[in-house]
Write a structure and sequence with these properties.
The protein is an all-alpha fold. The protein has helices spanning about 5-30, 35, 40-65, 70-75, 80-90, 100-125, 130-165, 170-200.
């Protein structure tokens, strides 16, 4: 029978590599003049950096307790597919607007979130409760950041348009946020109804 901890080790290393890669990108954004002109964006990036740095330290320490060598060595062996996807978003040469930089952050953190979902599930399946708990805690840190990014980005998009000389009506950013949040809420309600229907719940009851 394979060693559960040895099986789980590369998954943790992959997650650590993902977090570190996003941290590097956010550190570059922190120095970007386009970001600095939007205080709400700059503050969100700074707060996100603090959270992800803490995640990386936690994963580093957690990985040291696993067989097979140091955390640094494990990260070098990490699966590169997900890192390739992040690297494609965070092109070091490309100069993006603040809104596009935040869009890339949203995408990268969403990728990290689903990766933590997979790590949590894998750890549960392999009966590795400590790793499952770490993955769930980190996921719980990321979901509010994703929500906040979705609220900040519309404001930045419209401010950038105004900088280009377009006349933008006051309150449109809030309207965009309300509209998109409503869409997500409707999607969640539809999903919940679908689950109830598939399990024979009230939504699937059609009467006599």
């Amino acid at each position: 029978m394979p060693d559960n901890r040895e099986t789980l080790r590369p998954y943790i290393a992959d997650m650590l590599a993902v977090e570190k890669h996003i941290v590097e990108a956010l550190e570059r954004q922190q120095k970007d003049d386009d970001i600095k002109q939007f205080p709400n964006a700059a503050q969100l990036i700074e707060r996100t950096l603090g959270i992800l740095r803490t995640h990386a330290r936690t994963l580093d320490t957690h990985l040291e307790s696993f067989p097979g060598g140091s955390a640094a060595g494990a990260v070098k062996e990490a699966v590169t597919g997900v890192l390739g996807a992040i690297a494609g978003m965070y092109d070091k040469i490309r100069k993006d607007t603040a809104s596009r930089a935040l869009r890339d952050d949203y995408t990268a953190i969403s990728l990290a979130a689903i990766s933590y979902t997979m790590l949590h599930t894998t750890a549960l399946g392999l009966r590795q409760g400590a790793t499952a708990d770490v993955a769930l805690r980190h996921l719980q840190d990321l979901t509010p950041l994703i929500m906040e990014l979705s609220e900040v980005i519309p404001t930045i998009v419209l401010k950038e348009l105004s900088f280009e000389g377009y006349e933008i009506e006051t309150g449109l950013a809030q309207q965009a946020v309300r509209n998109t949040q409503q869409t997500w809420s409707q999607g969640a309600q539809t999903e919940t109804a679908g689950v109830r229907t598939s399990t024979g719940g009230a939504a699937g009851f059609s009467g006599a």
